[in-house]
Amino acid sequence: MTKTKNIQNTAKELYMDYSATTPTRQAVLDEALPFFVEKYGNPSSFHSTGLVAKRTLQDARERVAKILNCDEKEIVFNCIRYLPGCYCIFFNLCSKV
Fold first, then answer.
1. Contact 65, 71 (CB under 8 A)
2. Which residues of 49-69 are buried (b: 16+ CB within 10 A; e: fewer)?
3. Which residues touch 54 (CB under 8 Å, ≥6 apart)?
4. If you write DSSP's letter for every residue of 48-90 in order, what string do you get?
5. Which one, of 26, 23, 4, lies nearest residue 14 by Cα?
6. What is the arithmetic mean of pLDDT over 36-48?
7. Residues 6+ apart with CB under 8 A from 13
8. Domain segments of the chain: what residues?
């Protein structure tokens, strides 16, 4: 079996594929980890795990709105990379109707 050499350990890497994936900062991982292992509820559900997720999502929305100095209703979270562009087009079209 051929061993592959770990480039990161031998040379400084220049990563240029950010459209596919990006490295995650440790602070982001630390903040997100509980939602993969203990607070994994669906925020649209009415059980206790879902309600915890909903409250956490609302807290995050408030934090982001405060940072951006905008109303929390203007903050939309999504999980799909191309969706923000769709939102911009949709809301722009709706504002003209």
1. yes
2. eeebbbeeeeeebeeeeeeee
3. 41, 43, 44
4. HHHHHHHHHHHHHHHHHHHHHTS-GGG----S-TTHHHHHHHH
5. 23
6. 89
7. 7
8. 25-95
Total residues found in the chain within this entry: 97
Token duo for residue 36: 């993969």
Average pLDDT over residues 53-65: 92
pLDDT band at 6; cut points 50, 70, 90? low
**Which percentage of the chain shows pLDDT scores above 90?**
31
What pTM did the predictor assign?
A: 0.58
CA–CA dist 50, 53 (Å, integer): 5
